[in-house]
Amino acid sequence: MPVPATPRRRPPGRYDEPSLTGQRVLAVLLGILFLGLVAAVFFALYDRFGQEQVRGRVVSYDVRSDSRVVVELEVAKNPGSKAYCVIRSRSRDGAEVGRDVAVLDASGTADRTVRGSFPLATTERAVTGEVAGCTADPLSREDIAP
Predict the structure, then answer these.
(1) What is the bridge-based pairing of β-strands 96-104 and 83-90?
(2) Do 74 and 137 sit in the same domain of this protein?
(3) I need a surface site. Which of 1, 22, 29, 63 has the fewest CB within 10 A?
(4) Based on the domain organization, do 120 and 135 belong to the same domain?
(5) What HEC string does the chain produce?
(6) Residue 14 placed within a domain
(7) pLDDT, tens digit, for every residue of 81-101?
(8) What are the tens digits of pLDDT across the range 22-70?
(9) Residues 89 and 30 reside in one and the same domain
(10) How many domains would you assign to the chain?
């Protein structure tokens, strides 16, 4: 008579199913990292291509008198857009002594870079000429009044 087969007994804890907790935590962390990377790429592309950008810089400035500074600007813009920059000057103690709007490429040409010189009236002797900011949206003196 044959002997009935009895299942072999394994030592407890040695052959248990592996825990998936570590794998789940890793999957969640990798998912969060992936979403962050996708968001960073999206925002970088939006910043580069998604909005109209106008960036200006002062090429030179010339203090002509106690009441006048000439500021030469160079502006990078999208082709076909206009450029409006707020220019200002400061005195030796850092106080703002002049502010105005400089309009570059008012017709909106296809050029990507435009230059211009702008006289700026000051209330006292200035030591700098600066660009406070540029935009493609029309600005007037009333828009920038302190």
Answers:
(1) antiparallel
(2) yes
(3) 1
(4) yes
(5) CCCCCCCCCCCCCCCCCCCCHHHHHHHHHHHHHHHHHHHHHHHHHHHHHHCCCCEEEEEEEEEEECCEEEEEEEEECCCCCCEEEEEEEECCCCCEEEEEEEEECCCCCCCCEEEEEEEEECCCCCCCCEEEEEECCCCCHHHHCC
(6) no
(7) 888 899 999 999 999 999 999
(8) 889 999 999 999 999 999 999 888 777 766 678 889 999 999 999 999 9
(9) no
(10) 2
For the chain, give the longest Cα–Cα distance.
122
Non-local (6+) Cβ contacts of 76 within 8 A are: 53, 54, 55, 56, 112, 113
- The answer to whether residues 103 and 133 belong to one domain is yes
The label of the residue with tokens 């600007």 reads 73
Give the structural domain span for 100.
55-144
Is 115 in the same domain as 45? no
- 70 neighbors 117 (Cβ within 8 angstroms): yes
Can you tell me the distance from the alpha carbon of 116 to that of 78, in angstroms, rounded to the nearest whole number? 17
Name the pTM for this structure.
Answer: 0.61
Compute φ and ψ for 92, nearest 5 degrees: -60, -35
Within 13 A of 14's CA, how many CA atoms are on the CB side?
Answer: 4
For 3, phi and psi rounded to 5 degrees? -85, 130
